[in-house]
């Protein structure tokens, strides 16, 4: 368990809530507006104002593990491009297969987050968020405010510069001219996504405009804004597979026509389609299956050190595993089984998807302060990787399944 500092010692409910609300106001003014989340008919605390004290050596090891993980994912992507038949094993919608047959030469993902579990046995990656990673605003904005409140060093102070450097790389790779406009989109009703898009858009160094997803117009000629402006470059904080079910501003389905424009290069999206390909948790099973065939000895050593054995069936793991839908998000559809006993499961979402089975690796306990007093949950470490470089950490504490209501906790180095 990592040590932590509290803004309110000892704990008194009224004093704590007053202090927390003061901090919430400060982070909201800077763009982090979901310190609490309304779900299950009640307000839920999402931001803890505890401050984790993380050893500097541990931060460096997480960065090393992030580089290794990204290198393995990059090598895996290269192998998939050489062996396109493997795409059929990844549990992706058939309607997207044609899209993946024309993968571009850009990086498979520019904004990525890898999730790690830390223990005495070392760090283990449990999944990669390569398509639409969030947690950036927490790591950049809320982290800074809370570290200032604690009068502590902010180890994530470099995130803004990392985002800017990533945009510069994207401008080069996509050949975005100074006269071009990069449009940013997400579901307009989703506060977290909208504020994340706003944060990223403010750091883009050239022309940029926001267009709500609900207002995008798709026809045979191309993708347009409600005012008829042609969209050639689009940053989307929205899962690519969800577009298959979306409607344009005219009420017509976006679906296949939207994908056709990407295939024909009328529309260039960020993160690119390859990001969804690599988002499939079947990638982890593919890495396990192809470890001896696709990777060098050094890469095999990295896989053994940082990756958990993952399979397309539970046979190899018997009664201790985590079942994961290949395109599940926010913990949806996951089942945690140890010694034949279900520790936790989500049965509301993604039950119709192909699943993979990952070796169960227990998450460490972590105590933080909350509205209801000290809370001990499970610690998960998110590591942002932008343009292939480690770019800041994102800590959450929750249940056996890290879902939407797992709490964000800031950190400093000790």
Automatic annotation (TrEMBL):
InterPro entries: GSPS_pre-ATP-grasp-like_dom (IPR005494), PreATP-grasp_dom_sf (IPR016185). Keywords: ATP-binding, Ligase, Magnesium, Metal-binding, Nucleotide-binding. Residues 24-411 form the Glutathionylspermidine synthase pre-ATP-grasp-like domain. The keyword Metal-binding applies. SUPFAM superfamilies: Glutathione synthetase ATP-binding domain-like, PreATP-grasp domain. Coiled coil: none annotated. This is Glutathionylspermidine synthase family protein. It comes from Alkalihalobacterium chitinilyticum. The lineage of its organism: Bacteria, Bacillati, Bacillota, Bacilli, Bacillales.
């Amino acid at each position: 368990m990592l040590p932590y500092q509290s803004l309110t010692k000892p704990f008194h409910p009224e004093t704590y809530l007053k202090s927390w609300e003061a901090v919430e106001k400060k982070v909201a003014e800077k763009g982090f507006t979901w310190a609490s989340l309304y779900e299950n008919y009640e307000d839920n605390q999402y931001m803890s104002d505890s401050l984790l004290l993380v050893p500097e050596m541990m931060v460096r090891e997480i960065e090393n593990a992030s580089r290794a993980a990204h290198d393995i994912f990059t090598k895996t992507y290269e192998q998939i491009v050489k062996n396109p038949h493997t795409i059929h094993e990844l549990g992706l919608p058939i309607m997207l297969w044609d899209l993946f047959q024309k993968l571009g030469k850009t990086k498979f993902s520019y904004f990525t987050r890898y999730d790690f579990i830390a223990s005495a046995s070392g760090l283990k990656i449990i999944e990669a968020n390569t398509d639409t990673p969030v947690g950036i605003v927490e790591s950049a904005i809320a982290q800074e405010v809370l570290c200032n409140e604690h009068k502590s060093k902010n180890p994530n102070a470099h995130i803004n510069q990392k985002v800017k450097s990533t945009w510069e790389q994207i401008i080069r790779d996509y050949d975005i001219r100074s006269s071009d406009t990069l449009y940013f989109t997400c579901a307009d009703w989703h506060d977290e996504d909208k504020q994340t898009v706003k944060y990223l858009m403010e750091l883009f160094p050239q022309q940029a405009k926001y267009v709500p997803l609900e207002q995008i117009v798709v026809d045979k000629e191309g993708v347009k804004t409600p005012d008829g402006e042609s969209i050639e470059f689009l940053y989307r904080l929205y899962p690519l597979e969800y577009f298959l079910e979306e409607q344009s501003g005219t009420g017509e389905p976006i679906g296949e026509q939207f994908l056709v424009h990407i295939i024909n290069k009328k529309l260039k999206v960020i993160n690119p389609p390859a990001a969804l390909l690599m988002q499939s948790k079947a990638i982890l099973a593919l890495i396990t299956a192809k470890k001896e065939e696709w990777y060098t000895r050094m890469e095999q050593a990295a896989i053994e050190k940082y990756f958990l054995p993952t399979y397309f069936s539970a046979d190899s793991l018997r009664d201790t595993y985590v079942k994961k839908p290949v395109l599940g998000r926010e913990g949806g559809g996951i089942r945690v089984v140890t010694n034949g006993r279900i520790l936790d499961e989500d049965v509301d979402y993604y039950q119709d998807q192909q699943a993979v089975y990952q070796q169960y690796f227990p998450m460490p306990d972590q105590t933080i302060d909350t509205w209801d007093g000290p809370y001990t949950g499970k610690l998960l470490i998110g590591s942002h990787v932008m343009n292939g470089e480690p770019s800041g950490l994102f800590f959450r504490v929750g249940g056996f399944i890290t879902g939407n209501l797992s709490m964000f906790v800031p950190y400093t180095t000790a």
